[in-house]
Amino acid sequence: xxxxxxxxxxxxxxxxxxATVALLAIGLLGTGGAYALFTxxxxxxxTASHDSxxxxxxxxxxxxxxxxxGMSLQGTTQGPSLxxxxxxxxxxxxxxxxxxxxxTGPQAxxxxxxxxxxxxxxxxxxxxxxxxxxxxxxxxYLKADGDATAGGELFRVNCAMCHNVAGAGGALTEGKxxxxxxSVDARHIYEAMVTGPQNMPVFNDHNxxxxxxxxxxxxLKYIDKQSTVGGYDLGGLGPVSEGLFIWIFGLGAIVAxxxxxxxxxx
Length: 266
What we know:
The protein is mainly alpha-helical. The protein has a two-stranded antiparallel sheet with strand order 1-2. A hairpin with a 5-residue loop joins strand 1 and strand 2. The longest helix has about 45 residues. The model has no long low-confidence stretch (mean pLDDT about 85).
């Protein structure tokens, strides 16, 4: 049998130079095809879900909101335009029960919501589909794990003049008021900042960054958890309420005791 040289044996066992390239191409095509199929299916499913919410939200809007806000969200003499208010505004107003409005007045009163969470999602998805606006806040900003000290400073500078330094709320003009922020859902606090409901100004991301909004929420939740060390806090309204209490009840008690002692001695 003729002998085969080492060089010839190596050549016989060597792959074709294009074999590696062909394998890489097959792998890339397979991976890319699988990814495209998966993402296309996910996108189609997401689109179908979104379209379903928009359709359902349109029905709910037409039967519950269009009388005041118009069939095209353009607004009427009974209610403002909703074009561009975004999902956050709708979620805040409807989830807190302020809308639908129970009765006309200086401002909408908070009450139990009239819709289920699924219906609320459909409503804000429908309104948001008509024009861009502030969206639903991300969960990472609602965890109340930010800087409470920084949040307290921001709150005192931007919010305390209406809501009180302790978030207890306060009266405004013409029968309006800033509501108490105690035990308010973190999502609704964030949504109120970015949409400016009622008489509240809008604090967009250029005024107060999302991280700083999270700090304000952290501060308010910190206050919620603190017990009143000095006894009853009189609503957390500060020295005015405390002074009135002392003058009315304290001085009144002293006068009553003085009258009683005088009557007893006589």
